[in-house]
Specification:
Distance between the termini: 138 Å
CATH topology of one domain: Multidrug-efflux Transporter Regulator, Chain: A, Domain 2
Number of strands: 3
CATH class of one domain: Mainly Alpha
Helix content: 55-70%
CATH architecture of one domain: Orthogonal Bundle
Structural class: mainly alpha
Shape: elongated
Largest sheet: 3 strands, antiparallel
Number of helices: 5
Amino acid sequence: MTLLKTKDISDRLDVNPTTVQRWTKFFGIEHNTNEHGHYVYKEQQIATFAYIQKQLQEGKKMKDIAFNGQTKRRAAVRIPSVPKEQYEAKLEKVLVQVNDLEEKLSTKADDIVSYQLLKHRSELDEMVSLIEQLEKRLEAMDEKMSQHLAAAVNEQPRETTFPNKVRQGPWRAIMKLFSFA
């Protein structure tokens, strides 16, 4: 008995090797795998692939092709269904895990927000203390300036003014007119 690789069948039918693999899966065609994991077929299965190719060339859809009196395609591998109770129990377990994760995520988010608020609060406290220090320094500087100004005023000689003294000169009349004198 001769075993043929996917490539050998695709060459004989003049189709792409992936087409042969797709037909194998869709129609559940028996095959073996070699040591490299490649599909290998028996010589007699070429007729099955040729039949599929002929039906497709006639315009039939893959789901409408029947073998040996079948009206529907054969399922490649039927996976047994899980009992409803087992499915519901597993689903309930998953939902509980999802709820736990959501709660942990919410707690983590709250912790992060609390940490950020504490950090902002400490930064604000630092800024307030810095502002208080600056206020004290400004008050000290203001006090020193007041003292310097007072000392400067005390040191300057006073000019004596004579309030009754009237300016003399040709412009005296004009000055009186405008009330400058």
